[in-house]
Amino acid sequence: MRYCKKCVIPDTRPGIQIRADGICSACVGHGEKERFIDWDKRRAVFEAIVDEVKRLNKGYDCIVPVSGGKDSTYQVIKCLDYALRVLAVTWKTPARTEVGQYNLDNLVKLGVDHIDYTINPDVERRFMYKTLVKSGDTAIPMHMALYAIPLRLAVALGIPLVIWGESPHLEYGGTEAERNIDTLDLAWFKTHDILQGTSVKDWTDEDLTGKDLAAYRLPGDQEFKTAGIRSLFLGYYFRWDPEENLAISKNHGFRVRAEGPKTGYYDYADIDCDFISIHHYFKWLKFGFTRLFDNLSVEIRNGRMSRKEALKIITERGDQTPYEDIKKLCQFLQISEGHFWQIAESFRNRNIWSQENGRWVIKGFIITDWEWS
Ligand SMILES: [Zn+2]
User: Fold this and answer.
1) Roughly what angle, to the nearest 10 degrees, separates helices 121-135 and 323-333?
2) How many CA atoms lie within 13 A of 304 on its CB side?
3) What is the rounded distance in angstroms from the CA atom of residue 90 to the CA atom of residue 92?
4) CA of 194 to the centre of ligand 1 (A)
5) What is the Cα–Cα distance from 31 to 254, expressed in whole angstroms?
6) Counting Cβ atoms within 10 Å, is residue 87 exposed (0-12), middle (13-18) or buried (19+)?
7) 86 alpha carbon, distance to own chain's centre
8) What is the pLDDT along the chain (373 residues), one digit of tens a residue?
9) Fewer CB within 10 Å: N-end or C-end of the chain?
10) 280 touches 291 (CB < 8 A)
11) Cβ pair 270, 94 in contact under 8 A
């Protein structure tokens, strides 16, 4: 494994390229963000889009997909600052947390209409199980739903604009061309591994039919174009810093997780759904890094932490296996924990992991005195 010299991201992370000088594409992207991007110019472009949308004078100016996290709150505040009429849309996770519900209620009270879209739990259960077994990821249905539902509603209701949060390629690593993408459309999904290159039709059979999975279906290219929907990353137009977004959201009633971080480093991220930690956990087995690596790399890039401090925190917190959440997931999926671990083990990447004295270890791991369990 090769790690970025500046942050702690390994080259096994999907979408990351480490250059010959040892710096990863996310760090390069961050440098560009600080030095080359003309944020005033981008803001002006955004403002022109806002004016255009308002002139159309539709019932709603825009859809903001929201989960109840700090970014959702920030997106809504930003749209309200521009006096956009917002329809907030949520895919309702079957594992919504108390603080997640609180933050969602708070966000609606800021002054938006809201659809909390619930999918038949039996369909969701069978779909999640299937993606867990086949792809080692229970979050594929979640990601499909949370992208598809707002986009389909925009098409169906003729709402001209959809405003997403950060551009993942810009914040977490992508090629130069990918970092400059402002639009989340079908072409974008082809550049990102979030759905592991699959769409609804790859998951249908006699057990889960296309009709069962209707809620997860993205609008087609043609539908999208005919409807004239713009689907944009707010993080392309405004400099994205999780800490700044948090401060703004907190000023508007957003609450962090009182018990501390759920997974990773932040007490304010990944806190609205109890299953997201399991999605992150599989990165450990597949790619040899955890959510902490992602979060702390962002902290390093923003100059709030040294690489040495990050490594110390990773050592202290360990691999953050989310045992409690796994228990909940097994109840939801109606499977035993033994069965879950059997499936999980089948996704341990043997190119990274090897057996040493009866324990699984990662050769060349970033922390040399790591306690392998
Ligand atoms: Zn880096």
Assistant:
1) 120
2) 11
3) 6
4) 20
5) 29
6) buried
7) 22
8) 899 999 999 999 988 899 999 999 999 988 888 788 899 999 999 999 999 999 998 899 999 999 988 999 999 999 999 999 999 999 999 999 999 999 999 999 999 999 999 999 999 999 999 999 999 999 999 999 999 999 999 999 999 999 999 988 888 777 888 888 998 888 887 777 777 778 888 999 999 999 999 999 998 888 888 888 999 999 999 998 888 999 999 999 999 999 998 899 999 988 999 999 999 999 999 999 999 999 999 999 999 999 999 999 999 999 999 999 999 999 999 999 999 999 999 999 999 999 999 999 999 999 999 999 8
9) C
10) yes
11) no
Centroid of ligand 1 to alpha carbon of 255 (angstroms)? 30
* Domain ranges within the chain, ordered by starting residue: 39-237
Q: How many angstroms does the Cα of residue 30 sit away from the middle of ligand 1?
A: 9
Residues with CB under 5 A from ligand 1 (ion): 4, 6-7, 24, 27
Question: 6 C-alpha to center of ligand 1: Å?
Answer: 5
What's the rounded Cα separation, in Å, for the pair 200 and 268? 31
Cα 120 to middle of ligand 1, angstroms: 41
Looking at CATH, the fold of the domain delimited by 39-237 is given as Rossmann fold (3.40.50)
Name residue, tokens 């792809």: 135
Cβ atoms of residues 218 and 199 within 8 Å: yes
In sequence order, the 6+-apart residues with CB closer than 8 A to the CB of 202 are: none
> Which structure tokens are listed for 94?
């079957």
Give the integer Cα–Cα distance in Å for 84 and 18: 40
Largest pairwise CA distance in the chain: 68
